[in-house]
Amino acid sequence: MSAVVTIPRLYERLMAEYGPQGWWPLLGHAGTNPTKSGAVRGYHPGDYSFPRTDDERFEICVGAVLTQNTAWPNVERALASLASLNALTPDRMLDLDEGILRQAIRPSGYFNVKARKLRCLAEFCAGLGGRVPRRDELLAVWGIGPETADSILLYACKQPECVIDAYTRRVFAHLGIADPAASYDDLKALCERQLPRDVPVYQEFHGLLVEHAKRVYARKPYRDGVVRGNGG
DNA sequence: AACCAGGACGTGA
DNA sequence: TCACGTCATGGT
Predict the structure, then answer these.
(1) Residue A27: per-residue pLDDT
(2) Superfamily of A52-157 according to CATH
(3) What would the pLDDT profile of A115-146 be if each residue is shown by its tens digit?
(4) Cβ neighbours of residue A72 under 8 Å, at least 6 residues apart?
(5) Do A7 and A191 meet the contact criterion of CB atoms below 8 Å apart?
(6) How far is the CA of A7 from the C1' of B3 (A)?
(7) Is A111's CB less than 7 Å from nucleic acid strand C?
(8) Which tens digit of pLDDT belongs to each residue from A218-228?
């Protein structure tokens, strides 16, 4: 079914409005983007050369797990804590005492399950030997679902996989682009069919949707059924 | 002071 | 398949 706003037009509009978002944020790039909503830093707008090292790739994978149903500032604390323990490599993370790991990631919430997830992730990454994982391999890892897998593929591995999240659903629903009840895979296929198959485009699209949703749909006026602002 | 955040898993129908 | 409970800290 045709929507009033197509996905490519939405992309162009958001890009014109907000500019490059520079996802995925990395520790070590604090202060690069003071214009973003919220106090979070670590983004690198316009620079698509990241990640540059195995450590940065693994940091993104860890962040993708830690941010599950969790606000990013909390994830940053956990990542910084892991970094101070020098635990942001698969081997070093596996060497960590389980209790230490749990305490380190505590600020990100769900620390018991996430500690287990991180161990599974680290074990998987250690066994990859630098190879780019397939999506089905990632999905087979305990703790990695569709969104986390696609985040890892798109941002850590630079594979052309669209990421769908709660914000994506909200924006699509309110613009009449898609039924919010549609399955993850259907929405993903829709995006990948309509956008040019380009990694930076997929990366920006996701970042832009989150930024837009945070500004426009995040609270009450939206929840009460009134779309605030001109966003539409 | 509720409400919710860049989900995934286990379970029961 | 699909709805629902669970996991938990910190910001607003």
Answers:
(1) 95
(2) Hypothetical protein; domain 2 (1.10.340.30)
(3) 999 999 999 999 999 999 999 999 999 999 99
(4) A25, A38, A40
(5) yes
(6) 31
(7) yes
(8) 654 444 333 33
